[in-house]
Design a protein that fits this description.
The structure holds 2 protein chains of 2 kinds. Chain A is 22% helix and 32% strand. By secondary structure, chain A is α+β, with helices and mostly antiparallel strands. In chain A, strands 1-2-8-11-10-9 form a 6-stranded antiparallel sheet, with helices on one face. Chain A has a 5-stranded antiparallel sheet with strand order 4-5-6-3-7, with helices on one face. Chain B has one domain: Folate-binding fold, CATH 3.30.2270. The model of chain B has no long low-confidence stretch (mean pLDDT 93). The chains are: A alpha+beta, B alpha+beta. The interface between A and B is medium-sized, with 13 and 14 residues.
């Protein structure tokens, strides 16, 4: 069997902000009544973090949960664990109205590193990226230039961006372009 | 530029993050309706100069539909509210009354 490969195979750009494709990431879309104890238990059990509040993402090392909409969370696990995680979700939630589906290979993930990453994202998304308006841990689904994307910021001058795999090259290109040396705007300093 | 707050996910974004869905609170005229009523349901739309109720979708966000009350003249947004209703909620009507004294729904 052929090996799984992420969209850009770990492509990187070293601008005034580092842009790196994160490689393989297990991602499971979990939909259902988010008030349900079983849904919460499945999400936290697989995601390994607390259930996120509305508009937030909890992320530790290589696992996390992102709040996508009032009836959807994205559970992130190591790529190799996805089949077992889906099996667990189906067992716990059988008989309940829910959806748990592997979207790992339908998405691409980018990691941004550097002090200027807020302005790099602000160049592309119609979002107020000031630290007061968008603190670390907030999760935002929006658009980057012309395509849908979602991102959140970590505590350590890093951000993660999720987009559809089909537009991975486009997103990599616009992020790289926004991070080109000489393009510093000096916002949010 | 419109600034809308999605009542489903709480995000405040500008209009390029949303997609307009036309007039809100249409009442369907289905089987058994007269031809005139069905035609009006399909084609007749309000085009007011002023307060308007619209459907919007948070297309580049949570993906949910919601309703917005806004002024077509000034682009002022009076409020956004759940799409799971047939009437604008009272707080939105109050907000309109405060900003547009004398305005009545359907009164033009």
């Amino acid at each position: 069997m052929s090996d799984a490969t992420s969209a850009l195979n770990g492509a990187a750009y070293h601008g005034y902000v580092e842009v790196q494709e994160a490689g393989l990431r297990g991602m499971i879309t979990l939909r259902g009544d988010l008030a349900s104890v079983d849904i919460k238990n499945v999400a936290t059990g697989l995601g390994g973090v607390d259930f996120p509040a509305q508009g937030h993402c909890n992320w530790v090392e290589d696992r996390g949960i992102a709040w996508m909409s009032p009836d959807e969370v994205l559970v992130m696990v190591p790529h190799s664990e996805v089949p077992a995680a889906l099996e667990t979700a189906r067992n716990v939630l059988s008989g309940q109205h829910h959806l748990a589906v592997d979207v790992s290979d339908a998405r691409a993930v980018f990691v941004l590193r550097g002090a200027g990453l807020r302005e790099v994202l602000a160049k592309l998304a119609p979002v107020d990226m000031s630290p007061e308006a968008f603190p670390a841990g907030h999760f935002r689904r929006t658009r980057l230039a012309q395509v849908p994307a979602a991102f959140w910021l970590g505590e350590d001058d890093s951000a993660q961006v999720i987009c559809f795999r089909s537009v991975a090259q486009y997103v990599f290109d616009i992020l790289s372009h926004a991070a080109r040396p000489g393009g510093e705007v000096g916002l949010y300093r | 530029m419109l600034i809308l707050t999605c009542p489903c996910c709480g995000v405040t974004g500008e209009e390029t993050e949303f997609h307009a869905g036309g007039q809100a609170h249409l009442q369907r005229s289905g089987p058994g309706a007269s031809d005139e009523a069905f035609e009006a349901y399909l084609f007749a739309r309000e085009n007011p100069r002023g307060v308007h109720f619209e459907r919007w979708r948070h297309a580049n966000g949570c993906g949910k539909w919601f309703h917005a009350a806004r002024c077509t003249l000034t682009l002022e947004v009076f409020g956004t509210y759940s799409a799971q209703t047939t009437q604008p909620p009272q707080e939105v009507l109050d907000a309109i009354a405060k900003r547009r004294p004398g305005w009545t729904e359907g009164g033009k």
